[in-house]
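Progress note, project year one: complex with phosphoenolpyruvate.
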Amino acid sequence: MPTKIAAGNWKMNGQQTDISELQLISKAADQLDCRTIICPPTTLLGNATKFCNEIFIGGQDCHPKPSGAYTGDISANMLADMGASYVIVGHSERRTYHGENSTIVKAKAEAAIAADLKPIICVGEKLQQRESGDAIEAVSLQIKGSIPTNSEIILAYEPIWAIGTGVIPSFKEICQMHDAIRALLTKNYGSSGQKISILYGGSVKPSNAAEIFSATNVNGALVGGASLKSADFIPIMRALAKS
Ligand code: PEP
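Model obtained:
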């Protein structure tokens, strides 16, 4: 069975005082039958790993190289050195604002695995691809280009048009996409592909979490806005643990 995962992506949000929110999330995670991962900004990694022992901590991106003259970047080794266990790669905001294609995303995922981090590889279609009926094909192409040969990964399906908009795909569309992703991962990795956690991401809230988690091949969520406050994120973690 894939591990149930509630993952939070804080993006470029959060100050040192917000560690108290993380501590509340960590305390709640202790009681629940699911794994909680928070990916805070790099500036909070140190205190997050120090003060939040019941959750796992991840980075939001890593460079494909272990070290070197890459001003402003951070390597997977450095994240591991800070106590991180996971790293998000290929988030649509990186693909869009930093021009990252699937070849780069795959290199980052490989760098993460080499540093003993588990990559959370993000894929998702644009609105016009959804509207033209090409969503599954677009996502399949991204997956084929972005996943490494090693199956120690987490896959996050995040339709770009659902991120931060409050709009989500229908339950049927979520099921169809996650079933297609499971079939592709199984074709690629064999029985190991059946154990990979497939997360849904895009406007997950306490009000829609239970329905989303009731889909067979949804094994958790990657949550942006609603992961910033414990009052929003803890009910999502609870809905996942109950699913
Ligand atoms: C995200 O950015 O990964 C995300 C899913 O954001 P939100 O939950 O705010 O839509």
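The chain has a mean pLDDT of 97.
Strands lie at 5-9, 35-39, 56-59, 86-89, 118-123, 154-157, 198-201, 220-223.
No further modelling is planned for this target in the current period.
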